[in-house]
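Lab meeting, item 3. Inverse folding demo.
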């Protein structure tokens, strides 16, 4: 038998088998156990309404604290300008990010309703901590004046660490702004 004839036979066999299966089961009726058990006990429950309580004083204080920290961080960005990178400046940047983490940690964990915002705050804290470590690493790699010899391992470490610190500073702040926005959304939702 040639290959095209055997493929044609296979293509014909599949629909025939499906037709036989369907016709063989067509005269039988299926009984649903779900339908038979629910028919025996049909009771209707009255619709319930739940009222959501407004945010309490502690929740409002947490949201206010979050907004305050965000505002302080925003002010520190506006105060910045171009400066010569020295070991002292890198340590100052490290300390600044560590301070932001501490301020956010002091807020503590809010109620269950504010957890979506707190999840973002925790991520911001982790990111700021990472940035603080990166800036500290960069400070150890440079001379007090901020100089490094180009092409050396110290220069590569300093460059990579400064890039890491800057990225963490920006990413952490973006997370903090998202947390603040989520907090405002939750405040609007719960009143």
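The presenter then showed the designed sequence:
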């Amino acid at each position: 038998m040639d290959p095209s004839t055997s493929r044609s036979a296979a293509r014909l066999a599949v629909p025939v088998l499906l037709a036989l299966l369907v016709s063989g089961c067509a005269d039988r009726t299926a009984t649903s156990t779900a339908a038979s058990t629910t028919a025996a006990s049909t009771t209707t429950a009255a619709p319930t309404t739940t009222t959501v309580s407004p945010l309490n004083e502690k929740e409002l204080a947490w949201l206010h604290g979050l907004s305050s920290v965000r505002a302080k961080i925003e002010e520190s960005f506006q105060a910045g300008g171009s400066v010569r990178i020295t070991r002292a400046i890198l340590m100052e940047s490290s300390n600044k990010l560590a301070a932001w983490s501490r301020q956010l940690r002091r807020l503590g964990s809010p109620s269950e309703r504010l957890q979506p915002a707190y999840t973002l705050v925790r991520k911001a804290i982790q990111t700021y901590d990472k940035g603080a470590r990166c800036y500290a690493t960069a400070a150890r790699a440079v001379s007090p004046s901020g100089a490094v010899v180009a092409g050396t391992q110290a220069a590569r470490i300093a460059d990579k660490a400064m890039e890491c610190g800057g990225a963490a500073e920006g990413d952490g702040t973006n997370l903090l702004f998202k947390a603040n926005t989520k907090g405002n959304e939750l405040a609007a939702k719960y009143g």
